[in-house]
Write a structure and sequence with these properties.
Helices cover 39% and strands 17% of the residues. By secondary structure, the chain is an alpha/beta fold. The chain has 2 domains: 134 residues, ATPase, nucleotide binding domain (Nucleotidyltransferase, domain 5); 178 residues, Nucleotidyltransferase, domain 5. The protein has a 5-stranded mixed sheet with strand order 3-2-1-4-5, with helices on both faces. Strand 9, helix 9 and strand 10 form a beta-alpha-beta unit. Helix 8 packs parallel to helix 9. The longest helix is centred in the C-terminal third of the chain and has 30 residues.
Length: 352
């Protein structure tokens, strides 16, 4: 089955052609980094307008590069949740139009669940039960997976997602946007010391499987910018807080490396808790933009070996938002007899 995937949940306009859920014939991603860089993050209205400008060209390029024609397409899969509502509507409108015009079925795909399919593109089929981890700019979640389409969320972030924390730390350090790869690059410098600063690792109770990265982000802010002076108490002298040391290149690298170490420890801690609480798993499936982080990839490899699990993690180019993962998971849903009609809605929140 040839499935055309369409993805526009945030700031990547993407289309892909995938055969039988695994074989990627094309994957086109038009990023918007330059449009949003001056703002230090994604501006929803700008993202929506950029999707509208590029969606037709991106779809045409994906079909052309795949070496197929529109008449060869058997189904349309579209990411319809979660994401920025205006951005989602652009991709969903394109999918509905093509489904109606070509007379082929359409299936709505949960963007977060699709990240857990990304490691299966051009690769081996995972064995279940599996423990799933999505780490991205908007999501930090752990799932118990009976199959690619049957999953239960065990834990999620209660504040900042891990990718969001990377972006904020990059802004604090003056590294620019997108933050993830720039923090990773600084932390990977030869002399970077990941123990220079003892940044906190949130635990949220002895059994919690939820994440929290806001405290870590604030600890980095205070280390770089200095702590705010406490309010002056009546009748007592004001407390003078010394200024933060100069932010040298070496200091930037040490902060970045120490931050990454704290993130790694938090992720591994919660995954080990999940394994201890819910039992053994055949596979550890990881997806999302932060899955491209070099330190986390190494740590997850070690964790999987420790618990005799097969690690399924996407190639670097499938870590970012892409339409190939949408088409791949869409194929599995259609294979199970699931299809949607033209009343399918864009939903800004996740369904799992």
């Amino acid at each position: 089955m040839i499935v055309l995937g369409i993805e526009s949940s945030c700031d990547e306009t993407a289309a892909a052609v995938v055969v039988d859920g695994h074989t990627v014939r094309s994957s086109i991603v038009a990023s918007q980094y330059e449009l949003h860089s001056m703002y230090g993050g994604v501006v929803p209205e700008i993202a929506s307008r950029a999707h509208e400008q590029h969606i037709v060209r991106v779809i045409d390029d994906a079909i052309s590069q795949a070496g197929v024609s529109r008449s060869d397409i058997d189904a349309i899969a579209v990411g319809h949740r979660p994401g920025l509502i205006g951005a989602l509507l652009v991709g969903l409108s394109a999918a509905k139009a093509m489904s109606w015009a070509l007379g082929v079925p359409m299936i709505g795909v949960d963007h977060v669940q699709a990240h857990l399919w990304a490691g299966s593109l051009d690769g081996e089929i995972p064995r279940y039960p599996a423990l799933g981890l999505v780490i991205s700019g908007g999501h930090s979640s752990i799932y118990q997976m009976s199959s690619a389409t049957d999953l239960v969320r065990l834990g999620a972030t209660i504040d900042d997602a891990v990718g969001e924390a990377f972006d904020k730390v990059a802004a604090i350090l003056g590294l620019g946007h997108p933050g993830g790869p720039r923090v990773d690059a600084a932390a990977s410098m030869k002399d970077a010391n990941d123990r220079a600063f003892g940044f906190p690792v949130s635990r949220l109770g002895k059994e919690s499987l939820d994440f929290s990265f806001s405290g870590l982000k604030t600890a980095v802010l205070y280390e770089v910018k200095g702590k705010p002076a406490p309010p002056k108490m009546r009748g007592k002298p004001a407390i003078v807080v010394p200024p933060a040391p100069e932010l040298t290149t070496r200091r930037v690298e040490d902060v970045a490396a120490s931050f990454q170490r704290a993130v790694e420890r938090a992720v591994v801690l919660k995954l080990e808790r999940a394994i201890e609480q819910t039992g053994a798993y055949e596979t550890l499936i990881v997806g999302g933009g932060v899955a491209a982080n070099t330190r986390l990839r190494a740590a997850l490899t070690v964790l999987a070996e420790k618990y005799s699990m097969k690690l399924v993690i996407p190639d670097m180019h499938y870590c970012i938002d892409n339409a190939a993962m949408i088409a791949g998971l869409g194929y599995k849903l259609i294979e199970q007899g699931r299809v949607d009609d033209l009343t399918l809605c864009a939903v800004p929140t996740t369904g799992c």
